[in-house]
Recover the amino acids of this structure.
């Protein structure tokens, strides 16, 4: 789960992303660009990023947690973990030696 300023983002492993404002009391369902098993989320430079666990090259990003844009990862893998640091998003695929970074 990523908590930034007053926005909390949780990834539903099936199809939707939900967000909460303030303390997270109220949740509104948001729809991602495709139906997938979403895994992991990260926030950095004003952008949320989530990875598809099973649709190997699919990710999504949003600057507001409401409107989402499909993104393409460089390899068809089982992406699991996402992080942000030093101005770069990093995704890893377990049981491999492969990582993907944003440009």
């Amino acid at each position: 789960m990523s908590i930034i300023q007053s926005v909390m983002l949780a990834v539903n492993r099936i199809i939707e992303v939900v967000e909460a404002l303030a303390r997270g009391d109220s949740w509104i369902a948001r729809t991602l660009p495709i139906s997938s098993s979403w895994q992991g989320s990260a926030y950095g430079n004003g952008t949320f990023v989530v990875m598809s666990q099973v649709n190997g090259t699919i990710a999504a990003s949003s600057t507001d947690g409401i409107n989402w844009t499909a993104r393409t990862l460089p390899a068809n893998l089982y992406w699991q973990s996402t992080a942000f640091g030093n101005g770069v998003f990093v995704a890893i695929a377990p049981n491999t030696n492969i990582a993907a970074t944003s440009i």
Confidence is low (pLDDT under 50) at residues 1-6, 12-22. The two ends are 23 Å apart (CA to CA). The chain has one domain: 2-101.
